[in-house]
Amino acid sequence: MEATERRRAAAEKVRAAEDAVERLKAGLAGLGVTLPSLRVDPVSCAGNEPTPLVDLGRCNIDTALRLCEALAEKGSGHDG
Questions:
Q1: For the chain, where are the E strands, in sequence order?
Q2: How far apart are CA 74 and CA 21, in angstroms?
Q3: Angle at the Cα of 31 (from 27 to 34), degrees rounded to 5?
Q4: The pTM is what?
Q5: pLDDT per residue as tens digits for the range 47-65
Q6: For labeling, which of 3, 29, 51, 70 is most exposed (least CB within 10 Å)?
Q7: Cα-atom radius of gyration of the chain, to the nearest Å?
């Protein structure tokens, strides 16, 4: 694979990770949950062949409990 193709593939991976972050933010917001540190991990995007990771980050206990409630509601079929 030549350098241009590698750069293009790397950029596509990063874009896919950014899209996943935006989709997670939107989905969680629809459940009333905001993860303030949700982002693409910049270190995982470094180098010639990045393997982007989605960093869910940290949240306070209230946010964690709200996320638990939302997941339980979704799992029980009582999501709206």
A1: 39-40, 54-55
A2: 20
A3: 75
A4: 0.81
A5: 878 899 999 999 999 999 9
A6: 3
A7: 16
Burial level of 5, CB count in 10 A (0-12/13-18/19+)? exposed
Higher pLDDT, 77 or 55: 55
| Other Cβ atoms within 10 Å of 22 Cβ, number | 11
CA 30 to the chain's CA centroid: 15
Domain extents in the chain: 3-76
Q: How many H helices and E strands in the chain?
A: 2, 2
Which residue has 């306070």 as its token pair?
60
- Joined tokens for residue 26: 């939107």
